[in-house]
Amino acid sequence: MLAYVFWHWKQPQTAAKDYERRQRAFHAALAAAPSPGFLRSFSVGLSGAPWAAGGGDAYEDWYLVQDFGALGALNEAAVSASRSAPHDAAAAVASGGAGGLYRLRGGAALRAPGYAHWFGKPDGMSYGELFAQLAPVLDQSGAGLWMRQMVLGPGRELCVHARAPVSLPAPFDALVVPLRPAWPALDDGDTEPAR
Fold first, then answer.
1. Looking at residue 143, what is its pLDDT?
2. CA–CA gap between residue 132 and residue 44 (Å, rounded)
3. Which superkingdom does the taxonomy of this entry point to (predicted)?
4. Which domains does the chain have, with CATH numbers?
5. pLDDT tens digits for range 45-67
6. What pLDDT is stored for residue 186 in this prediction?
7. For the whole prediction, is pTM greater than 0.70?
8. Could you tell me where the beta strands, DSSP code E, fall in 29-172?
9. Which of 163, 55, 155, 51 is nearest to 101 (CA)?
10. What whole-number distance in Å separates Cα of residue 181 and Cα of residue 19?
């Protein structure tokens, strides 16, 4: 499972309520007419991520797809047919944005994470060691581990999505960002396992 992650922020003169309404309309249009391989999307409000609005108030959209082919289909579908007008209306009030590509590497893909723990791989640690050290944390907390792909995106290399803050073992040093659900309103228990 892959995720196209899009960080974006509103123009100063746009009310947050209007901005979120436009964002929700786009997500709803995509859910109503999904592209091949599209699984689902969710959006959260956040602040404190240096790569999004300079650490100010921003939004983080996650578009989950089956594979790289589905990512291309999503790219085309997002701005066409019934999704075009909602996409353009949302984009018209955005001040800026940045995107990244992540793959689920362990645990579960939460539908409504409450916290994102962003960090890099410690120097000298292999990915095998990293995954082995984090596996118990993911199992105990019901969290999911996402890993950036092909160095695409301004965010840190790894992200643990969890319902509540988790304690990562040493030597992991994470930036913990509280998330506020913006789309959709779902049961926090809904998850999908890593593939």
1. 98
2. 29
3. Bacteria
4. 2-184 (3.30.70.100)
5. 999 999 999 999 999 999 999 99
6. 47
7. yes
8. 38-46, 58-65, 94-110, 115-119, 144-148, 158-162
9. 155
10. 14
